[in-house]
Amino acid sequence: MRGAGAGRVRVKTAKNRTAQSTRWLQRQLNDPYVKQAKAEGWRSRAAFKLMELDDKFGLLKGARVVVDLGVAPGGWAQVVRKRAPHAKVAGIDLLPVDPMDGVVLLQMDFLSEEADAALAEALGDAPDLVLSDMAANTVGHAQTDHLRTMGLVEAAAWFAVEHLKPGGAFVAKVFAGGTDKDLLVLLKRNFATVKHAKPPASRKGSSEWYVIAQGFKGRAEPPPEV
């Protein structure tokens, strides 16, 4: 590596490194959020995204029970612990996550049949905030990648609708085009407000946005048997 321009770092092309990975590495090395995250002890630059969303929407104010879907490497859970230190927090991810004080970490597939029960046992109470920074592994085909990630978002939304306390909130990462129509209908039916936001920490060239649904209306009671 060598300096390039005003303090920028240029990454030399390596024999076994693709052009795409070289661009990614160079972007990481020159990203001020990456540098700030490292300096302040955050596990990922994504921590700043949640802080910025929280500053705007007050997501963690009064939060007592929080679920972090797609918790690895733990940046969002760190923010929850800092801003809502008394909250119970449980995170789930396919990837291993280094232990965190005050956070129950489950290494398992969120889409598995066992996930709901495992999260419920870890929390001991219904959540008032469900966070999802999940994204499917990309295959390089834009439409396929979008559909795969939106499938995860939809699963996270249903989890929120089935488990949140009344008045609770749901936050999830979506991509260009925003929230799919059917999912938007689901959220608007079950939450008082549904908005989209792109926090400043989200790279300008990235297609990611976040959907923020607040004021969960509560699950409708089943009709009485006749």
TrEMBL record:
<dbReference type="InterPro" id="IPR015507">
    <property type="entry name" value="rRNA-MeTfrase_E"/>
</dbReference>
<feature type="binding site">
    <location>
        <position position="93"/>
    </location>
    <ligand>
        <name>S-adenosyl-L-methionine</name>
    </ligand>
</feature>
<protein>
    <recommendedName>
        <fullName>Ribosomal RNA large subunit methyltransferase E</fullName>
        <ecNumber>2.1.1.166</ecNumber>
    </recommendedName>
</protein>
<dbReference type="InterPro" id="IPR002877">
    <property type="entry name" value="RNA_MeTrfase_FtsJ_dom"/>
</dbReference>
<keyword id="KW-0489">Methyltransferase</keyword>
<dbReference type="GO" id="GO:0005737">
    <property type="term" value="C:cytoplasm"/>
</dbReference>
<feature type="binding site">
    <location>
        <position position="109"/>
    </location>
    <ligand>
        <name>S-adenosyl-L-methionine</name>
    </ligand>
</feature>
<keyword id="KW-0963">Cytoplasm</keyword>
<dbReference type="GO" id="GO:0008650">
    <property type="term" value="F:rRNA (uridine-2'-O-)-methyltransferase activity"/>
</dbReference>
<keyword id="KW-0808">Transferase</keyword>
<keyword id="KW-0949">S-adenosyl-L-methionine</keyword>
<dbReference type="InterPro" id="IPR050082">
    <property type="entry name" value="RNA_methyltr_RlmE"/>
</dbReference>
<comment type="similarity">
    <text>Belongs to the class I-like SAM-binding methyltransferase superfamily. RNA methyltransferase RlmE family.</text>
</comment>
<feature type="domain" description="Ribosomal RNA methyltransferase FtsJ">
    <location>
        <begin position="42"/>
        <end position="216"/>
    </location>
</feature>
<feature type="binding site">
    <location>
        <position position="133"/>
    </location>
    <ligand>
        <name>S-adenosyl-L-methionine</name>
    </ligand>
</feature>
<feature type="binding site">
    <location>
        <position position="76"/>
    </location>
    <ligand>
        <name>S-adenosyl-L-methionine</name>
    </ligand>
</feature>
<feature type="active site" description="Proton acceptor">
    <location>
        <position position="173"/>
    </location>
</feature>
<dbReference type="Pfam" id="PF01728">
    <property type="entry name" value="FtsJ"/>
</dbReference>
<keyword id="KW-0698">rRNA processing</keyword>
<feature type="binding site">
    <location>
        <position position="74"/>
    </location>
    <ligand>
        <name>S-adenosyl-L-methionine</name>
    </ligand>
</feature>
<comment type="function">
    <text>Specifically methylates the uridine in position 2552 of 23S rRNA at the 2'-O position of the ribose in the fully assembled 50S ribosomal subunit.</text>
</comment>
<dbReference type="InterPro" id="IPR029063">
    <property type="entry name" value="SAM-dependent_MTases_sf"/>
</dbReference>
